[in-house]
């Protein structure tokens, strides 16, 4: 735990600040768990920023993505948090993935993607089914653009179907969610330190 690490949580709720958000809550819980392993964290609620549609790292005047991208590239760990809407990640999460697609055109002096050596984990909340599918979709996309997924790299909560209770409305975090988040944090910090000490080889 001697190597300090940093994490960035991109919260992909549809709800702008300062309103409460279940996705924001679970992302902060993950950051709190990571903090116990020497990982400092920051939260960015993406909907608060004018992230333009597109698949380039910079879509021009007024695009907020370049400044968010700087934070992504500066962090050792990316935490991507999304609600489930109609069985899928939010439109905000999809936009983040589309913008991360721009990383496929960027590389270091040895031909590696700039995201190589960075770890990504996923948090999903919703009161409809689909957490495993949403997690799988996000894992695949994040791996495609260069991130490494740790064992147990996803945590989630699904409420009862067709009911209105949200994660943020619970009186306490369910033990199953808390223990899953704790495992995620331990494995994430471990993997991030290994990769920071020994980067992937050039192609």
From TrEMBL:
Domain NADPH-dependent FMN reductase-like, chain residue ranges per copy: 17-153
Any Pfam family hit: FMN_red
GO-annotated molecular function: oxidoreductase activity
InterPro entries cross-referenced by the UniProt entry: Flavoprotein-like_sf, FMN_Rdtase-like_dom
Official protein name in the record: BRAMP protein
The organism's taxonomic lineage, starting at the top: Bacteria, Bacillati, Actinomycetota, Actinomycetes, Pseudonocardiales
